[in-house]
Amino acid sequence: MARLVVSPLPAHRRGAILLLLFALAATAACTRAEAPAPAPPPPGPRAGTVRVETQPPGLDLVADGAVRCRTPCSFRIDPGLHRLSIHRSGYMPWQESVEVRPGSEITVSAALVSSH
Q1: Read out DSSP for the chain?
Q2: Residue 34's pLDDT is what?
Q3: 20 lies in a domain?
């Protein structure tokens, strides 16, 4: 029967292994999830309202790079041209530009198309 002999590691190898473990732990600690997008600024007194309906429902709507709501929903936004978008796995991306006038109300409907 063969005998397994385990000898202690030389000091220089122990140091190298400890250094490697420390480096791996430091790398793992620095790897973080992406920071959430900044919250959109609060709308001013001249803001309009955008109502959004989607098929399927329950999608995150992004306006000008910030998540605004989960559909179906509505939100107030300052007047001007705004870029709306929705991205969901399994569907083609959807986007549309809308012009919001002071105090106006706009309804947007989006039917996402399956990417399969």
Answers
A1: -------PPPHHHHHHHHHHHHHHHHHHHH--PPPPPPPPPPP-TT-EEEEEEEESS-PEEEETTEEEEESSEEEEE-SEEEEEEE--TTB--EEEEEEEPTT-EEEEEEE--B--
A2: 60
A3: yes
**pTM tops 0.85:** no
Count structural domains, the chain.
1
Nearest to 64 by CA among 79, 44, 93, 84: 84
On whether residue 1 sits in a domain, the answer given is: no
Neighbours of 9 (CB within 10 A): 11
Least confident span in 28-32, 68-72, 110-114: 28-32
Measured CA to CA, the distance from residue 23 to residue 8 in angstroms comes to 23
**What is the sign of the dihedral through the CA atoms of 21, 26, 27 and 32?**
positive
Predicted pLDDT of residue 113 = 93
Residue 24 in this model has a pLDDT that exceeds 70: no
The domain of 73 spans 10-116
